[in-house]
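REQUEST FORM: STRUCTURE PREDICTION
Request ID: SP-0412
Submitted by: Lab K.M.
Chain count: 1
Length (residues): 209
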Amino acid sequence: MIELWPATAFGINTIVKNVLGPVEIHHSTSIDQCVEMLQADIYQLVIIGPGLKNLADLQTISIHIKMNRHVYVVAFVNAAITLSLIELVRLFGTGIKGLLNPDAEVKEIGEIVHSAFNGTLNISEKLKMEVLYNYILPTEKKGPAVIVVKLSRKEAEIAKLLVAGWRNKQIAEAFNLVPTTISTFKLKIFRKMKVRNVIELATRLALEV
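STATUS: Completed
RESULT:
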């Protein structure tokens, strides 16, 4: 079963059913009802719609998710909410598996809902860029080697560009290298940082700052 809050976010119904098939969707009318549904331990996925007004509501829900490891959550983060990288890491430490900006494209919503339903961590590109630009890139003046001591200077520079959303080809052009060389760097960075993807790398970088 799928839980959807707030109840006004009916537009997500179609997307969810297109991605997951004929699932049963329950609509909560308040955060208290949403928490009550979480405690019922009958849902596999909870979707917090664009009506989320503040970070406190998301934090309240995340606390209850942590107590119920059988449920995953996808949340739309309102443009008025300032989400720090540290807060992002904290939220991902609970059962929150996906975060989206309110104006995310239908295709991206579908992809993140699908991956969250299968227990995989994901975040929309726009939201990722906003968070990482504000909380990782400004540390550049400190020197990349200071940020992650496990990486060489060049690896640290490439790691920051990866989490900022740069493609291998773009990074290769910036360093006057070929994309295959960047792919090799990427594998080395993942291995050194003990991560499997860019989102996990972003989390590790946040903890290293």
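NOTES: The chain has eleven helices and six strands.
Reviewed by: T.R.
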